[in-house]
Specification:
Distance between the termini: 21 Å
Largest sheet: 5 strands, antiparallel
Structural class: alpha+beta
Number of helices: 3
Number of strands: 8
Shape: elongated
Strand order of the largest sheet: 1-2-3-8-5
Strand content: 25-35%
Order of helices and strands: HHEEEEEEEEH
Length: about 160
């Protein structure tokens, strides 16, 4: 998540043994990686950092953020029911747990003067972290840049 959300990639330097198998430790690590990556591949492949959208330097306390097309992907590592996104212009169309497609009820509270968006997720399913919430927007993500020029931060 951190690599994708910061426009980096990660080389996993694991080679096979002479008999063509992988070492047991490598199998274990790759299996764990696959548990998160495979059901959430949409938030990884072709996705890019949303840092160019949200240019303030503070990290999100709940996880990471990536985007692709009309979607933003909230990589939740610490469960939360409220996510503040300052300066976002888009309206939320829908939200769902990416791995299952389970709908997530979201309230899009706005203060139009500042293009402030607070996403409130009600009744999040009992799911272990990490997980990804896919938020579909009414267009490619756009941010009202003046918010950051004024020195506001996300938290």
């Amino acid at each position: 998540a951190q690599m994708v959300s910061h426009n980096a990639n990660h080389l996993i330097n694991v080679g096979p043994l002479p008999d063509g198998t992988f070492p047991a430790e490598a199998d274990k690590i790759l299996a764990e990686l696959g548990k998160l990556a495979i059901p959430n591949i949409e938030a990884i492949t072709g996705a890019h950092s949303a840092a160019k959208l949200f240019t303030c330097t503070q990290a999100f306390p709940w996880g990471e953020l990536t985007s692709k097309g009309n979607n933003i992907y909230l990589w939740i590592f610490r469960k939360t029911s409220v996510i503040d996104l300052y300066g976002i212009r888009n309206k939320v169309v829908k939200a769902e747990i990416l791995s299952s497609g389970e709908p997530v009820k979201v309230i899009d509270e706005r203060v139009e003067e500042y293009n402030y968006c607070r996403l409130i997720f009600e009744d999040l399913p009992s799911i272990e972290t990490p997980f990804i919430i896919k938020v579909e927007l009414d267009g490619a993500p756009q941010v009202f840049e003046r918010i950051y020029d004024a020195g506001f931060t996300r938290f």
